[in-house]
Amino acid sequence: MTITRVTGNGGLPMINVSNDHADAVISVYAGQVLSFTPKGAADVLFVSDNAYYAEGKAIKGGVPICWPWFGADPEGKGRPAHGFMRNRMWSEWETRENADGSTTVVLGLESSPETLAIWPHAFRLAMEITVGKTLQLALVTRNTGDAVFTITQAMHTYFAVGDIAQTTVTGLEGTQYLDKAADGNGGTKQQDGAISINSEVDRVYFGIPAELAIVDGALKRTIRITSSGNKTAVVWNPWAKIAAGMADLQDDDYTRFVCVETTNAADDVVEVAAGAEFRLVAEYSL
C-alpha cells in the first residue's frame, strides 16, 4: 500500500492511493473521489477534461458530495444548489490499511461560523473512502447540536462509459420516478424495462432496490452499485444541448458518462436527532 499526498490541478491537495487491488485519486478539496481504477481495468469514474479545479468551484466528475440538501435550496433563500460541501476544503482525518489489503481514507469537515451562517446547525460530516477490490463510500452525518435537523443529500457519482448509446441502467424496472427533465414537479411515471439514454435524462427514482447496475456494451463491462440508507436514486445525463452550454464539460462528454446517484432526495428526507448520526453508503464494483 502506498498513500501519496500531492499538489494536484489548480494547486488543490490530492491523495493518491495504490494497493494490490486498485488505484484511486481523492481530492481533499470537496471530499471527492476523482478516480477508482481496479487493477487491469479502466477507470470506473469519469472526470471532464474541462473540469474546474479552483476554490469556490465544483469539480465536474468523480463523486461530488451534495449536502445538506440535494437540488435547489429547500428554503428558497438563494443558497447554492446541492448545498455547500462540494466547493470547500475538507480535512484528512484518518488513513489506514485494512486486513484484506484495502486502504481507507477518511476526510471530514465540521461546522464553523461560516457554515452556521449558511445553515444554522452544528454538525460533523465524514466521507469514509475504502479502496480495494471495490470502492466503498460512506457519507456519515453526525448532529453535534442540541436539536434535530433534517437533510437531503447525494453521492452525485459520474460513471465512465464507453458510449452512452450502448449503455443501459438496470435494477429500476417497474419503479416510480419523477421526470424532472420533462415536467419539473409533475406526477410520477413508471419505469418500463431497463433505462436507455438517448436524450436528456434527469429522474428521481423512488423505492429503489439495494443493487443497480450500469451495463456498458462498448467497454463490455458491468458496474454494480449497492447502497444502503437511501430510498431514492437519481439517474442523470445532460445530453448534447445542456452539455454544450456547460463550460466545464466538453461538448461530447455526455457520450462518456452516466450519473447514477445514491441519494436521499425529494421526499426521502433524513431526520438526524441531536447526538445521533446517519450513514449513507454506496459500493461500486466491476
Number of separate helices: 3
Uncertain parts: none
Overall domain count: 1
Mean pLDDT: 96
Main sheet properties = 9 strands, antiparallel
CATH architecture classification: Distorted Sandwich
Helices and strands, in order, run as: EEEEEEEHEEEEEEEHEEEEEEHEEE
CA-atom Rg in angstroms: 18 Å
Give a description of the structure:
This protein is mainly beta. It has a single domain, classed as Beta-galactosidase, Chain A, domain 5 (Distorted Sandwich), CATH 2.70.98. It contains three helices and 23 strands. The protein has helices at 113-118, 180-183, 239-244, and strands at residues 2-7, 13-18, 22-27, 32-38, 65-66, 91-97, 103-110, 123-131, 135-143, 149-151, 153-155, 158-160, 167-170, 176-179, 188-190, 195-196, 201-206, 211-216, 221-228, 232-237, 257-264, 270-272, 277-285. The strands form four sheets. A nine-stranded antiparallel beta sheet has the order 6-7-8-9-23-19-18-13-16, with no helix packed on it. A hairpin with a 4-residue loop joins strand 3 and strand 4. The longest helix has 6 residues, at 113-118. The model has no long low-confidence stretch (mean pLDDT 96).
